[in-house]
Design goal:
about 35% helix, alpha/beta, about 100 residues, 3 helices, 4-stranded parallel beta sheet
């Protein structure tokens, strides 16, 4: 039996701004559905509700994250997609499972 996991591989982005009360559940849902080769990025818009502390708790399980001001939701997605290297890119919002 071959133990190599074939693609497709996904780059997943979660844009977040002050949705800390939902963020941990979203992160756990994404991590539970990922397979080796997938990437996960969280792009936070400089939240002030504890979101960064939540992201830091999962830091070693995600591919990358950043927290800085952005102009809109679409800019956060653009930043996340620019970080991804897989052929398929998608997003899941904070609060979605």
């Amino acid at each position: 039996m071959n133990n190599i996991i074939d693609g497709p591989f996904f780059s997943i982005v979660t844009p977040n701004y002050n949705m800390g009360s939902y963020l941990a559940e979203t992160i756990e849902s994404v991590l539970a559905n990922m397979k080796p080769g997938d990437e996960y990025f969280i792009i936070d818009g400089a939240s002030n509700d504890g979101s960064v502390e939540i992201i830091k708790k999962y830091e070693k399980h995600i591919t990358g994250w950043l927290s800085e001001e952005d102009s809109c939701y679409a800019e956060a997605l653009k930043k996340g997609f620019a970080l991804g290297s897989n052929d398929y890119q998608c997003w899941i919002n904070s609060g979605d499972l």
